[in-house]
Amino acid sequence: MTQTMRLLAGVLLGASALRDRRKAAGDCYSKYDGMLLVKMNTRVEQYEEVFNALQKLGCSETSEERTEITAICDKGSMFSLRAMFGTRHVNLVHQDAGEFYRSSSGVTKKFNVSGPSMAVSTSFYAEWRDYEERMSAVAAAVDKSSACSLETFGTTIDGLPMKAVRLTGAGWSPGKPRFVANFQIHAREWVSGMAGVFAVEAACERAAQNPNWLAGMEVVLVPTLNPDGTIFSEVSDRMWRKNRRINSGSSCKGVDLNRNWDPAWGERESTSSNKCQDVYFGTGPFSEPEVQALKGVIDEAPVTVHLDIHAYAGAILKPWSYTYTKHPDDEEINRVGEQMRAAMQAATGNRHRYGGNELLGPASGACPDYSTLTGAYGFTIELRPEGSNGGGFAPPASEILPTSLEAWAAIEAAIAYTKSRPDPTLAPPTPAPVPTPAPACPSKCNGWRCRYTSGCDGCC
């Protein structure tokens, strides 16, 4: 058994045990059976009011948009929303949210592997695969490629090992170009996790076929940053977002791993101190082990470009997330951002939006802002669909492969930029001022008389 497969065995054992503990009766949609899927059309400035109302009424928000919000509510809550915001602004999408998503998106399915190599094929992306299946595919891709290594870089709140794939080109050393991408920081964003597997497979295959591809640079891929939440989303609650932290003094679990960073931790933009809300920011910056683990990857050597890959909204978001103030390198950041957008469109014909937090609104304590703070260009990529009409967090399985192709195209473009990005031009240091030479000492200051003779200060 190879080292990669030994690491995989540990992952599968722990994940299977956790899956058995978390599994609820029925499937991941069962808790939404009989509840209403509601869509609200609002103004941007109303978002916070609507968001707070949904939380107080016990509705589950299922959207990333600020003007077209979808949520799962009971009948009483929908009537309350209509009373608060007007009947014409609160529309019923489906009488049974559980059945709607079960039929339109589906659950995870096993992948029948042919042969001992566990080779991943495009058919792997025809259906949703669970965490164990995806990590098996990652391990298989690494095991087939001498250019890749699978490593444990942290441990989740529930004790699962966190895995990253590292590709280090010939001649790389800390300080040279470096690219980092992480996927599925939010559990319900299944398509991001599938795209993470695709990226690992594609990168390992390309690096093995072309050893010069990554010469002088390093790539680190984290295919799933939130394993505990992912498993819970697969077996119990399809719309679960956070990790599985037990919050002291509350029956509500979890911390939003994309609100747990500095800068701007605990500030007000799309966050909450309420432990029951999806955007609960935790007890302090970097409080969560999953966040600490990724922070360690970012901190171990300077990063040139960092991608935090989410779904959904169909957008590439440049820094900063927490403020509307432009980054000093905004022009250069736009260069790589537009290169990624063009590559994604070339892959499938689908065009993503590009911009800053004016697209989806600001967010405090977001992951890419930390990498940007350390010197990287940190982007959030929101994969397809663009809106809730495409399924939102639960798109049809037919979207997995084209979405993965787009994500990989963005990664290829970012890697190409990382390799070619010129070192920043540093201004030459200001030379130290030349000291004024001391005046020559008169002859009267020679010898033993010096210290006793006026006008000889500094000469003795």
Helix/sheet category: alpha/beta
Give me the strand/helix succession.
Answer: HEHEEHEHHEEEHEHHEEHEHEH
| SS summary, helix count | 11
The CATH architecture of the largest domain can be named as 3-Layer(aba) Sandwich
**What share of the residues does DSSP label as strand, in percent?**
5-15%
Low-confidence stretches: 424-438, 447-453
- The named CATH superfamily of the largest domain: Zn peptidases
Architecture overview:
The chain has 460 residues and is of the alpha/beta class. The chain has helices at 3-22, 47-57, 75-85, 97-104, 131-143, 190-209, 227-235, 289-299, 330-348, 367-373, 400-420, and strands spanning 36-41, 60-61, 68-73, 90-94, 149-155, 161-168, 178-183, 218-222, 305-311, 315-317, 353-355, 377-383. It folds into two domains: 35-95, 2-Layer Sandwich (Alpha-Beta Plaits); 122-420, 3-Layer(aba) Sandwich (Aminopeptidase). 33% of the residues lie in helices and 14% in strands. The N and C termini lie far apart (79 Å).
Give structural attributes.
460 residues, alpha/beta, Alpha-Beta Plaits, Aminopeptidase, 2 domains, four-stranded antiparallel sheet, 14% strand
